[in-house]
Structures are given as C-alpha cells and as structure tokens.
Amino acid sequence: MNQELVVISDEQVEILLGDLLEYYGYDFTGYSKASIKRRILRLYGLDKQLSFAEFRYKINNDTAYFKRFVEQITVNVTEMFRDPGFFKTLRDTVLPKLGTYPLIRIWLAGCSTGEEAYSVSIILKELNLLHKSLIYATDINPAVLEKAGQGMFAMSQMKQYSENYIQSGGTKDFSSYYTANYSLAKFSDELKSRIIFSTHNLVSDHSFNEFQLILCRNVLIYFDRDLQHKVLSLFDESLEGLGYLALGSKETLDFSPLARNYKRVPGEKIWRKVS
Amino acid sequence: MNKCDALIIGGSAGSLDVLLKVLPELNPALSFPIIIVVHRKHGADSLLPELLAGRTSLIVKEIDEKEPILAGTIYVAPSDYHTLIEKDRSFSLDCSEKINYSRPAIDATFQTAAEVYRDKLVCLLLSGSNADGVNGLISVKAWGGTTVIQDPQTAQVAYMPQQAANFAKIDYTLAIEAMAEFINLLS
Ligand SMILES: C[S@@+](CC[C@H](N)C(=O)[O-])C[C@H]1O[C@@H](n2cnc3c(N)ncnc32)[C@H](O)[C@@H]1O
C-alpha cells in the first residue's frame, strides 16, 4: 500500500538527471521537479530495484533500460479529440483561415502515440484540406512514435473518442474512419498519408521548418518556466506571420514576453501571430 | 500543533456539501492557503470554483500551472490533471495516468505536499467512495504532517475516511460542525 514511501531524494534525482545529460545527451534538468520525481519513483517502484546504486548503474550501462527509463518518465497519456471545444475552434475558425494557403504546414510537437495527429487529420479531411496539408508530428520518445505510425488504437476507447468527435463538431459516422480488428481500431491509411512522424527533442533540437499552425498541448506543463520560455521562442521562430500557436487547456502564453506579438483566439488556448 | 503553512482538503462523493457548509464560517484572514482536491466529472470545470466562491470572501480560484501558492487563497484543483506541489511552493499540473480511477488524485497532491511542507502541512480527507487519499495521508504522517478525517459517521459516503482510519495514523477525526473552528485555529 505505501509503495510511495520508497524514497529517492531530490539530490538523487539531480544525480540521475546529470547522468542522462552526460552519458546520453538528454537534458531533463528543466523539467518540473515534482512531476519528474514522481515518474522516477514510480519506475523505481515498478522495477523493484534493490538499491539506488543499482538503479543508477543500470540506467547508465544498459541501453535497453535507458530507453525504458525515457519512455517511463515522459508522460504519454493522450486521447483523440481531447478537449472537444478546442477541436471545434480548430475546425470552425483556425483551419478555414489557413485554407487559402497552397500548402498548409502543421507542426504537432509532443504528439505522443498519435491520437491528436489523427484527430487533426480527420478534420482536415472533412474540410477538404487534407490533400494539401502536411502534419509534422514529433516527440522525444521513439517508442510512442512507432505506435503512432501504426495508427491502431484500443477498440475500447472508440465510444469515448466518437463522443469527443461529435462534441467537436463532427457529423460523420466516426466508425467510418477505422476498421475493427479484434481489440484494435485501425485508422485508414488516407488519414496517415499526410502525417510525418519523427523524433524531435524540444529541449535540444532546432527549428526545422516554417509552419502556419503549431500545436503543442500538454507538454509545457512538464517544463519549468525557463524551459517554457525557451521552447516558446522555438515555436515563435518556427511560426509564419499570421500563423497560429495552440497550447493545452492549462497552458498559456501570458507569461512570455512574446505575448505582445500574439492575439488570442477568444475562449481557447490558441494565439495568432500578428507581428 | 505546529504552525500551518498549508491545508489540503481532499474529497469525493458527498464532499461538496461539507465544503459548502464549512467555507462560510472560515476566518477571512487565513494565514495559510487552502488547496481543495475533489473528484469531479470530466468537463464540469469552471463551475466548482464559482460555486465555492459564493460561500466565502476569501479568494477562490482554479489552479494555474506554475502558480505560486499564497496564503489566504483557496485553490481548486482543475479536473483531468493531477495537482503537484513543487519545492518552491508553486503548483505543477500533470496529466499522467489516473490513480485510484481518479484525476485529479488526492494522493498525488497529498504526497508531493508532504515532502514540501513537512510538519507544517495539514491534510483533511472528507466523504468519498474510494480509497484515494489514504496513501497520501500515510505519506503526510511519515513526513511529520497532521492528518485529519471527516468522522465517517457524519459522511454521506463513509468509505474514504473509514479506509483512512483503517490504514493511516489519524490525528483528528472531526464532525462537519467542528471543521471550520478547527481550520480557523490553525492560523
Ligand atoms: C501528455 S503527452 C501530450 C500528448 C498530446 N499532445 C495531448 O495533448 O494529448 C506529452 C508528450 O510530450 C512528449 N515530450 C516530453 N518531453 C519532450 C521533449 N523534450 N521534446 C519533445 N517531446 C517531449 C512526451 O514524450 C509525451 O509524448
């Protein structure tokens, strides 16, 4: 019952984060401490390590275990049409505005297992924009990207996703987008055809294109304020004038000096770059 | 008891009525923050802070991520995120897996706060139908904080405070009528 009393101290967390940076070049030092510590404790509890020293040794010397570590300390929880109101605004306001561009470039940063990318793809298709859109869906974690590429999600989620879809303004039969295969729903290849999944680390990688729409939802909550500012600047560099930046329902541009160059879409966590 | 730096109230089914009774009697000049983590339906968001604000002259607000935690304010955990407490006494939000079928999970807030506020933390667990919060109270106790439950006999759903009484060391068991005075005296 009191698994959580297994204690790793703050200093030990710092040691592990220092190792990751030194040995693997992964910089988690700007992540919110409470959250990352919880994740580490969770993994430590799950894997029943005997001692902190062994835990540390394994992360630093066993690449497979290091991969597991990165997979487990990032939070990958996501869903299709998460926050339906957000997707409704995307459908009704944002994407139609972008419809006039010959090619719509979208960056979905922190895409996790892909549910969000397929959701955007569905809306683009319904707006008849999919053929001239490209969605660059990126994440730090290769394991989630592999899953995203398969486009298969648990059948048991479809009822919820279908409800979300309808609430987001969808009017089609949601089940027409996938074929049921035992416990999995496989989404159509057409939806995937305009999505490029690839790794990109928001902490250390650079801008790689200019976009008209950048979505990064429920990722910044894991970063401290300094890292948030840094990543927001990366987005700003990567966003064309009059492009849109979309954040998660609890995230904001308000505390960034960049805010003055942006105008918020009323009622949603979406900002338009106006200068 | 030690000086209180934060009071966290957790609850589930049957806890809203308790809050609505207790809030009006709170001292409007509280010298510590109150953080409220109650389970609620997906999407029923902004309603709860508004509802509670109607019962007190203290500031009531839904938590924003990275927000510093200030005395004299009542903070309400948003739905669909876990609320975590950072060392520098600010909030972090986290949308990781549900815990005890719940997000927000009371355990997540109690546990992270336990380490930060240590013996200056008071956690109160109200009525509810699952065991969320129980592990949290165990941590609070382990870090020297004060554990309080609603008297299960006065709870609409006794299960949650009863589980706490069974598994954690509880310092105070309070009837609803005794809660406001208890809280006011923490100042
Ligand atoms: C909670 S999920 C959000 C998924 C989706 N955007 C949503 O809102 O449902 C957060 C994702 O951010 C990714 N992430 C964390 N740190 C990152 C970084 N430094 N660079 C890129 N992605 C990162 C995680 O791997 C995870 O898949």
TrEMBL record, chain A:
Sections of the chain in a coiled coil: none
UniProt keyword annotation of Glycoprotein present: no
Gene3D superfamilies referenced in this protein's UniProt entry, alphabetically: Vaccinia Virus protein VP39
SUPFAM superfamilies on file: Chemotaxis receptor methyltransferase CheR, N-terminal domain (SSF47757), S-adenosyl-L-methionine-dependent methyltransferases (SSF53335)
UniProt record, GO biological process: methylation
Keyword Transcription (UniProt): no
Pfam family of the protein (one): CheR
Top-rank EC class of the record's enzyme: transferase
Domain CheR-type methyltransferase, residue spans: 1-253
EC code(s) of this entry: 2.1.1.80
Domain of life where this protein originates: Bacteria
InterPro entries assigned to the protein according to its UniProt record, in alphabetical order: Bact_Chemotaxis_MeTrfase, CheR_C, CheR_MeTrfase, SAM-dependent_MTases_sf
UniProt GO MF annotations: protein-glutamate O-methyltransferase activity
Keyword tags: Methyltransferase, Transferase
Name of the featured protein: Chemotaxis protein methyltransferase CheR
Provenance organism: Pedobacter cryoconitis
Automatic annotation (TrEMBL), chain B:
An example Gene Ontology biological process: chemotaxis
EC category name: hydrolase
Keyword set includes Lipid metabolism: no
Domain of life: Bacteria
Enzyme Commission numbers on file: 3.1.1.61
UniProt-recorded Gene Ontology molecular function terms: phosphorelay response regulator activity; protein-glutamate methylesterase activity
Catalytic activity of the protein: [protein]-L-glutamate 5-O-methyl ester + H2O = L-glutamyl-[protein] + methanol + H(+)
SUPFAM superfamilies per UniProt: Methylesterase CheB, C-terminal domain
A GO CC annotation given for this chain: cytoplasm
Keyword Cell division: no
Active site location: S12, H39, D132
CDD domains recorded: CheB (cd16433)
Protein known as: protein-glutamate methylesterase
InterPro entries to which the protein is assigned, alphabetical: CheB_C, Sig_transdc_resp-reg_Me-estase
Keywords in alphabetical order: Chemotaxis, Hydrolase
Domain CheB-type methylesterase: 1-183
Species per Swiss-Prot/TrEMBL record: Pedobacter cryoconitis
